[in-house]
C-alpha cells in the first residue's frame, strides 16, 4: 500500500484542480516538488499580463462593482467576500472556500433577490472543452459556500470585432451560457477532489505514462522530467507528422527512428525519413529541386517577418488576434548579384 504523508495541505485552488484533471503526476509535483518548476518566462508572463488587461476590460461591463484585493489567506478572502456580497453589487475576484477547495471568481453579478450569475473571462477567441470544468469547479465552491448561482457564463474575445477608435468592451466580448455543461460536470467534482488529495498525500510520485495529455490542454512544464527517457537524437517523436504513430510505437517499446521495423505502416515522407536515419545519408531529390528552381525568374525576393497578435487589437481596423507585422527583412537576388535591404 502506498505510504501517505500526514500533514496539513493547502486548499485545492482552481488552477490546481485543472492541473489534476490534466495529470495527477503534475498535480503531485505542484504540491510536493515546487522547486522542480522553472520560473515564469517572459512569454508566459506576457500572456498572464494580457489576461489581466482582458479581465479588467470585462469588468467595465459591470459598473459599480467591488474589487476584492487578493489576500494570500483563502479564509480571509472568503470572509471579506461574504461581507462584500451583502451589498448586492458585482464582485470582482471574490474568493470562497468549500471543504478542501478554493476559487476566485472573475465576476459575480447579482441577479434577482438573492442569486448570482458567475462569469468567467477568458482571453481566447471561443469556448474550449476545458473551460467547462473550470467554471463547474467554481460553481461547486461558491454553492458549497452558500451562494445561489443562477447561471454560468463564459466571456471570451469576439474575433470578428474590428477596432475603430477606443476599444468598445460591449463589442469586444462575446458571452456564452454554459450552465448546462457545468451542471453535467457537477456530480463528479467531489470525487475528483477526493482523488486528487489522495494522490497529493502519497509519499511517492505517481506513475503516469507520457501521452497526449502532456500537451493537452496545456504543454506540461514537467516534460523535461517525464520525457527524459527518450534518446537525445532521433527519438520516435521526430517522425514527420507522426505523433499518433509515435505513441503506438512507444507502446511496443520502440524509442528510436532507427528501431522502426519494415512492417510498420509509414507515409512516404516518414519512410524517407526513417531510411535516412538508418543509412546515415541525406535524401536529395535533385530532379525535384531542379524542376522547382527552373520555374523561378529573377529577381528573387526572400521575405522574413515577425508578427504580434494581441487579443485586444492595438490598431484601428484590426481584429483581435490578427497578426500584425512589426519587423521584416527582405533579401533580393538580382541575377547572380546578392543585395539585401533590411526593414
Ligand atoms: S509531462 Fe506528462 S506525464 Fe509528466 S507530469 Fe506532465 S502531463 Fe504528467
Structure description:
This protein is an alpha+beta fold. It has 3 domains: 14-201, Lambda Exonuclease, Chain A (Alpha-Beta Complex), CATH 3.90.320; 230-283; 295-342, no CATH class. The protein has helices at 14-22, 24-32, 42-59, 74-85, 129-144, 169-172, 179-201, 223-226, 243-251, 268-279, 286-294; strands spanning 66-67, 91-98, 101-111, 115-121, 148-157, 173-177, 300-308, 324-334, 337-342. The strands form 2 sheets. Strands 1-2-3-4-5-6 form a 6-stranded mixed beta sheet, with helices on both faces. Strands 7-8-9 form a 3-stranded antiparallel beta sheet, with no helix packed on it. The protein is flat. The N and C termini lie far apart (65 Å). The model has no long low-confidence stretch (mean pLDDT 94). The structure holds iron/sulfur cluster. Iron/sulfur cluster is lined by residues 22-23, 25-26, 208, 210, 213-214, 220, 222-223, 226. Iron/sulfur cluster (SF4) is lined by residues 22-23, 25-26, 208, 210, 213-214, 220, 222-223, 226.
Which key terms come to mind for this protein?
binds iron/sulfur cluster, alpha+beta, 343 residues, six-stranded mixed β-sheet, Lambda Exonuclease, Chain A
Amino acid at each position: 500500500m502506498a505510504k501517505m504523508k500526514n500533514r496539513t495541505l493547502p486548499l485545492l485552488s482552481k488552477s490546481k484542480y485543472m492541473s489534476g484533471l490534466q495529470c495527477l503526476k503534475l498535480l503531485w509535483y505542484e504540491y510536493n516538488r515546487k522547486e522542480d518548476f522553472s520560473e515564469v518566462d517572459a512569454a508566459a508572463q506576457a500572456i498572464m499580463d494580457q489576461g489581466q488587461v482582458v479581465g479588467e476590460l470585462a469588468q467595465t461591463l459591470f459598473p459599480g462593482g467591488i474589487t476584492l484585493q487578493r489576500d494570500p489567506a483563502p479564509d480571509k478572502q472568503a470572509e471579506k467576500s461574504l461581507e462584500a456580497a451583502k451589498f448586492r453589487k458585482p464582485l470582482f475576484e471574490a474568493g470562497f472556500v468549500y471543504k478542501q477547495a478554493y476559487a476566485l471568481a472573475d465576476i459575480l453579478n447579482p441577479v434577482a433577490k438573492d442569486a448570482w450569475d458567475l462569469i468567467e473571462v477568458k482571453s481566447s477567441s471561443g469556448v474550449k472543452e476545458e473551460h467547462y470544468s473550470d467554471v463547474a469547479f467554481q460553481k461547486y465552491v461558491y454553492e458549497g459556500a452558500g451562494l445561489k448561482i443562477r447561471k454560468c457564463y463564459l466571456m471570451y474575445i469576439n474575433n470578428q470585432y474590428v477596432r475603430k477608435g477606443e476599444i468598445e468592451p460591449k463589442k469586444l466580448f462575446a458571452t456564452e451560457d454554459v450552465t448546462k455543461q457545468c451542471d453535467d460536470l457537477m456530480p463528479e467534482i467531489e470525487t475528483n477532489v477526493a482523488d486528487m488529495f489522495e494522490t497529493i498525500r502519497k509519499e511517492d510520485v505517481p506513475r503516469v505514462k507520457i501521452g497526449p495529455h502532456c500537451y493537452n490542454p496545456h504543454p506540461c512544464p514537467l516534460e523535461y522530467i517525464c520525457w527524459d527517457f527518450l534518446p537525445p537524437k532521433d527519438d520516435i517523436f521526430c517522425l514527420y507528422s507522426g505523433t499518433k504513430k509515435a505513441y503506438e510505437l512507444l507502446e511496443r517499446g520502440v524509442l528510436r527512428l532507427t528501431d522502426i521495423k519494415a512492417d510498420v505502416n509509414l507515409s512516404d515522407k516518414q519512410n524517407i525519413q526513417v531510411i535516412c536515419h538508418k543509412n546515415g545519408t541525406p535524401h536529395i531529390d535533385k530532379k525535384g529541386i531542379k524542376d522547382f528552381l527552373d520555374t523561378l525568374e529573377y529577381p528573387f525576393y526572400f521575405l522574413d517577418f515577425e508578427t504580434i497578435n494581441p487579443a485586444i487589437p492595438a490598431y484601428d481596423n484590426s481584429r483581435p488576434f490578427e497578426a500584425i507585422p512589426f519587423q521584416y527583412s527582405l533579401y533580393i537576388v538580382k541575377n547572380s548579384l546578392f543585395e539585401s535591404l533590411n526593414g
